[in-house]
Amino acid sequence: MSAASTRIDLLRHGECVGGDIFRGSTDCALSAAGWRQMEAAVADLAWEQIIASPLRRCRRFAEHLGQRLGVPVRLDDDWRECHFGVWEGRLCADLWAAQPAVLQRYFADPSSYTPAGGEPYSALALRVARAWQNLIAAHCGKRVLVIAHGGTLCALYLHLLALPAACFTRFAVPHACLSRWLCYPQAPERPVLIFHNRGGDHA
Questions:
Q1: Does residue 203 form part of some domain?
Q2: Of 49, 65, 78, 169, whose Cβ has the fewest other Cβ atoms within 10 Å?
């Protein structure tokens, strides 16, 4: 096993076609602006492995970047976005207007409510933790880029920082947000956050 630290960059996909909807497992494409956002976020960086959600807003950019850099790309279903059940594909503004109390409850603590037919937060949390452990085991000492989704990455941050589900919305993870974590061989279970929201929109 390499004694070098493992560098993991986490990139959220860019803006998508279809507007501000509960996208979840809906397989939307990047918009032209979203593609440019992601290109700008990774312009001066390099990796030895790219891992991506199979949804095309992540997959297509991952495949493009892997080909450009000559880096292998692996798709992993554990990095897909949370499925929102009956909320899938609906405009966020419409749902906030129709069910404000329910959405407030969900965003205050997603473990307290699951939309009908949706993926429970507990299942999301388990699979992102599994995805992280598999990544560390397979790519120890490497530089890895993961291209995934806002909800997936927020759930992962909570896992890495040992925070409760009620902190789910305490992270800004805008389109093309890039964060970097280091895992040191002396303490692989305690990754260190190096930076967050490089390349993403700022309030």
A1: no
A2: 169
